[in-house]
Design a protein that fits this description.
Blueprint (H helix, E strand, L loop, with lengths): L1 H28 L10 H30 L2 H24 L5 H26 L1
């Protein structure tokens, strides 16, 4: 289960980077804490961090269930699509929110595969 652990920790490091960027960007764009609105560029950086948090709630348990009941190696491989998709989402969303599709789709598809595969694997194991 080392591979899913590594992928999980990479996803968390990525999230920590996004959260750090939000904090560092507050002064650059003049958005004092605890405000969650202000400069449009800062709001996009903040939305990427918030969206990543929302997706992690699905991603992490799904990765571990899939890896437990289907395959750790396949789970880690699918999980890497999520990890690769998030920086693509970040760069595209911050520069032009309408161009975020590729990064979003990579993460979304990874989550769908992990959730559905995890359900299938757990049901198969139960039966």
């Amino acid at each position: 289960m080392e591979l899913p652990a590594i992928v999980s920790l990479l996803a968390l490091l990525e999230y920590m980077f996004f959260a750090f960027r939000v904090g560092m960007s507050r002064s650059k764009y003049g958005v004092p804490a605890p405000a969650v609105s202000g400069n449009p560029e800062w709001e996009r950086i903040f939305r990427v961090q918030q969206n990543t948090l929302e997706q992690l709630i699905i991603f992490l348990p799904a990765l571990w269930v899939f890896s437990t009941y289907v395959s750790p190696a396949i789970g880690a491989g699918v999980g890497m699509l999520f990890v690769i998709g998030r920086p693509i989402y970040y760069r595209s969303y911050v520069s032009n929110p309408e161009s975020r599709t590729v990064g979003f789709v990579l993460g979304f598809l990874a989550n769908v595969v992990l959730v559905l595969g995890g359900i299938g694997g757990a049901v198969r194991s139960l039966l």
